[in-house]
Give the backbone structure.
Amino acid sequence: MTINLNINDQKVSVPRGTTVLEAARKLNINIPTLCNHADLCVAGNCRVCVVEQKGARTLIAACAMPVSEGMDIYTNTLKVRNARKHIVELLLSEHRSDCTKCYKNQKCELQALANEFAFGDTIFLDLVEDHNYTIDRSSPSFIKDDSKCIRCQRCVRTCSELQYISAIAVSKKGSHQKISSFHNRPMSHVVCTNCGQCVNRCPTGALVEKTYIDQVWDAIYDTEKHVVVQTAPAVRVALGEDLGYDPGERVTGKMVTALKQLGIDSVLDTDFSADLTIMEEGTELLTRLKKALVDGDKNTVLPMFTSCSPGWIKFIEHKYPQFLPNLSTCKSPQQMFGALAKTFYAQKRHLDPSKIVSVSIMPCTAKKYEADRPEMRASGYKDIDFVLTTRELAVMIKQAGIDFRNLEPSRYDSVMGESTGAGVIFGATGGVMEAALRTAYEIVTGREVPFNNLNIIPARGMDGVKEATIKIEGCTGDWKFLEGVELKVAIAHGLTNANKVMKLVKSGKAAYHFIEIMACPGGCIGGGGQPIPTSMEIRKNRMKAIYSEDEHMVLRKSHENPEVIAIYKEFLGRPNSHLSHELLHTHYVERENY
Amino acid sequence: MYQVGNLVKKLSDKHGRKRESLMPILQGIVEKHNYLTDEAMVEVAKELDISAAEVYGTASFYTFLDTQVRGKYVIRVCKTITCSMKGKNEIIQTLEDILKIKVGETTSDKNFSLIETNCIGWCHKAPAILINEIPYTELTPEKIVEIIKGYLHK
Amino acid sequence: MERKGLNKVGLIFEKIDIKEVLTKTFNMSSNDIIQNILNSGLKGRGGAGFPTGLKWKYTAAEKELEKYVVCNADEGEPGTFKDREILDKVAYKVYGGMVIAGKAIGAKNGIVYLRGEYRFLLPQLMKELEAFHNLLDEIGFDFKIRYCLGSGAYICGEESALFESIQGDRGEPRNKPPYPTSSGVFGKPTTINNVETLVSAAMIIMHGAISYSQLGTTDSRGSKVFSVSGDTPTPGIFELELGMTVQEFVNEFGDGDTKAVQVGGASGFCVPRKKFQNTIIGFEGVPTGGSMKLFNSSRSMYNVLHNYLDFFAEESCGQCTPCRVGCQQLLKGVEKVKKGEAKSTYLNELVKLADTMKIASKCGLGQSVGNAFRTIVENFREEIIY
């Protein structure tokens, strides 16, 4: 049913249920917003979007008001302007406005609003001093600075709607209202998964990643140190957004050049260790299937869960510790890379591992936490020294004065710079599953996975939970036991969807063999360390770019990666070998559920 | 806090394990233990399968669902306008003197907590207080001394 | 302007045979009941004054099978205590009103949301409820009432915040629309009425709409229970016909030295002596949920204002900017002016802020903070400034 209304005396027709804000956008009339976010439910609490409705006693919040027939809306009356100015100034009065020193300077939505509506002297009194605000730096991934919080509750909605975990919630009321963890405990001591989705949606500097830019610069300038960088697959399809490109532009080659220009000694690719992960995890899956289906081993549990998303790992450690044995023991590609950088790579390049500084560029804030886990010291050193987000890399490129747009592309260094399309698609939801199937199916049957051009379409796309069944036929050699088995797999992204799958698994209603879970919406392309803003449309563009990157690769199956073949030959022996277990596998910890 | 766990289970059996059961369960805990310990809130979160931060967030919204240590008898002195006009301050002063605590504090024997609260609906008989759920009205310093004496002998 | 003078009425607390009213209701159609309530002119007694019959009509029109009658007994407005007295004295009439509303809208479930401050009443109320449920069984009514208890939050008197609280959440008001009549408690069509409104409805069914509508004025039909406090020799609860002036009220209840009356509590209006004569208590003048506070010349209106602002700064739910931050600004602002740290003209800026809060806040709380602020600052400016 269509509703007709007028906005600023222009007629517009929209479907019933459309909000005034959406209707105005259709007319290209901009109504400022703040608490509103495309990924989240409507809150209607910041009131920045108030507009005037003819005949109404009060102003209305455009984001929360559904259109009605014959409505007359005015978005720019004196009444609206005065109220909006007041509202922005009120927000500023409870916000520590140390803008020039703020990490979010010029990337802050409140600052942008202030610029438009509240410049000049404010009439309101500073309320920051009245509150006993705290800055929580306990998490290795992010900083929560309550003095910059404007209570838009985007973070709270993110944490509950998208990520189910609700590590933070609104507490107290009135002037004491704030966003709190459980009884204000440090973020490092609560169920927080460090996924950074809140950081991605915070309009101000109240939630920002903990940055290690200066530490990395120090390492670069330290002539004693050999700085090796790995870049995750999802970074190359998003970095451009922070450097003036549209979402979905692939900037892989330019990014490599830029890193070299920053002074990185060796620019390598996480895709390499993603391919390696497939070898390890694929072998683990097949071994588990054999133990469970043939040997009847009671200690082998199915389904097996992927383990490359550190946010997901922390989620299951807190929420479903009874299922920790179901997690693949494989480290994430970042940590596999880290363990090898200070062992295999050091040997190959004749470097003293204590002089290697291993830096990873990740779309993720949880990776910062993962690198800090005590388990991640298999090399005898901290396997990964510093984790930078996509955003931090963009900052460094800007700091260095690099003209990114005009860079010539270059290739990754070697060793550990070679990759396949399978490694690339790790960056999108379903990608690990697709990469694993491409390899596992071929190991078992000697034939390519039976999907057109290797594209396993059921594993792709933005559906929250995806399922697929693959019948295994024509098994060879040791794998005869899988003949005719219908391999059931599931894929979930975003922890709310992960929780749905876990509930199914817990209830015993789902007989899956293998489940891929990524903590962030869309997978790593929608990671908490990716450029801000984010939306479904932006994530879809990044996803398209990932699959396009895959299509453009000559090698698209992990087991065909020549460097992967070589490392098994020269160093690791075979997948799941003793040395593999030592370096590339890990264990998990049960954690409290609060 | 094994006991709290039991109480939370009992209350959840009584009121159910849906989100709407949260308030009566929290009220039940406060009735028994005067305030909500962290352990109690974690237990409630577990029973209701909701996040502990949300339990805290909800509890801390409500003045009577204390998340700080409270004594056996929580004295809430109304501070809204009529009680304020009619001698609230003398009542507070008297209470502070006899209990030897300030507003916001709890006696060391954990018997009494003294706090201020907003309008409790006894403006026509101001000043008024609540001791736990029981209202006392038209108070004078003399009267409040007698009332507290009564509680001391309980 | 239509006036009625000050007349004491004894409707709300009148002892009645509730069985008679219920039997009568049992034999009435939903439409009959709604028509009766519409004809009586009854408006909500909680303060907002929405026509009760319309509320019921809208809820009745909803097609959902599951509907609720909610009794708002979260009387938290400073200076209001009449609902406590009504529940204490004639709870069965409140329950009766809920059954009537239930029959009108097609609901089988009622919830009384009782403020935590009145918990001491609960044992007695539950006992009466049991007897009442037995009576319903006797007549053959399929209607059940249960209690939900608040825990100290003024904002839960706001209807959608109250629903949130019943649902076990923070009492934060919702965006409207949808309105309770289509999506109330548990997302179901709900009619939510104040304690006194429900009793009035029961009396209208008992005595008929005509006799009720003869009380009061065109805009303010019927009688109203007033909570009288402050500087008065006779504080207490009084049922009065609507349509009197503040002067008439002060003549009856004042101590001879009344300089201002706060009508409608902290969220209401301050009427100064010079306006007593021309201000009618009711929807044509100053509406009230019943709170009438008298201040004599010994009182500092700065203290009154400060007390109210302190109250709002604490009791705002905190979710929307104008209310959460606005209340703090008003409070801190008047403190600065009083101390001489801000110019007296700063009050003009604060009045403008109060006006913004009135039109831009999410719910009735934030929208009414400006009432007391504006009327006290306008009428007693000299008491606020340094």
About this structure: Residues 2-59 of chain B form one domain. The first strand of chain B starts at residue 73 and ends at 78.
